[in-house]
Amino acid sequence: MKEFVITQKDQGRRLDKFIMNLLKSAPPSFTYKMLRKKNIVLNDRKASGSELLACNDTVKLYLSDETFEKFAARPDRGAGEDLIRLMPQIIYEDNDIMIVNKPSGMLTQRSSSSDISLNEICLAYVRKKDPAGRQGEDFTPSVCNRLDRNTSGLVTFAKTYRGARCLSDAFAGRRMGKYYICIAVGLIKDEMTLTGTLTKDEATNKVSVKSMGDGAKILTIVRPVRHNDRLTLAEVEILTGKTHQIRAHLAAYGHPILGDDKYGDRAVNRQYRQRYGIRSQMLVCTRLVFPDDLGLPDLAGRTVSINLPEEFDKVM
User: Looking at 22, 47, 72, which one is the last position of a domain?
Assistant: First the structure.
C-alpha cells in the first residue's frame, strides 16, 4: 500500500489527475477501474476521481509494489521521434496550451498500454520542445477534452498545470462553447433542442438515450445549415459532454449521423461508402469558443475554428 498526503502544491487538483501523474505509464482506464474497486481511496473512502484535493487529504493506493513500480515509471522516451511524426496539425499554441486537429481514426487517450493515442503524441512533442521539463515533474501534460476515435476535430492539450486547471474548469463549468458539424440522415428543417437522459453499457461501450428517466441529463442543440433530398448538414452545440452524446441523441430522434454503424443506418451508410468512400461517421468538432474569464489572457474570449473536411461538401 502506498499513501500520499496532499500538500499545498497539489491542492485544488482533481484526484484522477493526481493519480495519473503518479502512475504515468498506466492507461486512464486502469485508474478509474482501481477507483471503482476501492483499490484507490481518498481519506479512506471510495472516490470517483472528480474530487478536488485539499491540504492534508490522504490518497491510498492498495497496489502491489510490482504494479506500482511498473506504472510509476515514465514511458520509454526512445519512441518519442516516432510519435512526433504522427503529430496532427497544430491550430493554436502558447506557453500553456495547444489545440490540435485530431484526424478520424486516432484515439484521444489510450485504453490499453499498447495503444498509441493523441495524448502520447502531444506529450512526446511537448517533451522534445522542453527536454528540461519546464512543466515540472509534478505535472504531466495531457489532453483536456476527448473526441470519439472516429470523430475528427479540435482537441485541447494542457502543457502546464495552469493551462490544465483553466481548461478543466471551463469544460466542467459548461462555460466553453463546443460546436460540431455533422451530416445527418433525413431532412431537418428547423432548429431542434434535444433533451433526455443517457446511460452507458460498459460491456458493449454503447449508450442509450431516453426522453426521461434514470441516467445523465443531456442537452443537444441542432441547427440545420443546408440539406438535399436525403441528408442534412447541421451545426450541433452540446451543452453537456457525455460519451457518444451527439451520435446517440440524433439517432434517438430519427436522424443518425451518416457513416455511424454503431447508432446509425448501416444500409444507408453502405450506399455512401460505396459511392464516396467515407470511412467513419461524418462528425467533426469545428469550433471552440473560450469564455472571457478563462484565466488564460491570450485565449480568453477568443474563438478557434477549422474548415470542414472536403468530403463533407462532396457528400452533400
Answer: 72
> CATH number of the domain that 65 lies in?
3.10.290.10
Quote the distance between the C-alpha of residue 154 and its chain's center.
10
Mean pLDDT in each 10-residue stretch from start to end of the chain (316 residues)? 86 89 86 94 94 93 89 62 90 95 93 84 88 58 92 95 91 92 96 92 86 86 94 94 91 94 93 90 96 93 95 92
Same domain, 84 and 67: no
Domain shared by 189 and 259, yes or no: yes
Give the pLDDT of residue 78. Answer: 47
Do 192 and 304 lie in one domain? The reply is yes
Q: Which residue matches cell numbers 498506466?
A: 26
- pLDDT of amino acid 110: 85
Q: Which residues contact 20 (CB under 8 A, 6 or more apart)?
A: 26, 28, 31, 140, 142
Asked whether the whole model's pTM tops 0.85, one would answer: no
- 112 half-sphere exposure, CB direction, 13 A CA radius: 2
What does the block give as the cell for 183? Answer: 451530416
Residues 302 and 225 in one domain: yes
143 and 192 belong to one structural domain: no
Containing structural domain, residue 65: 2-72
Distance CA 195, CA 213 (A): 12
Count of domains in the chain? Answer: 3
Distance CA 171, CA 182 (A): 21
Helix axes 15-22, 28-36, angle to 10 degrees: 120
Alpha carbon distance 214, 63 (integer Å):
34
Name the residue among 204, 181, 211 with its Cα closest to residue 263: 204
Compute the 3-state secondary structure of the chain and give helix, strand, coil in percent, each to the nearest 5: 25, 30, 45
Residues 153 and 264 placed together within one structural domain of the fold: no
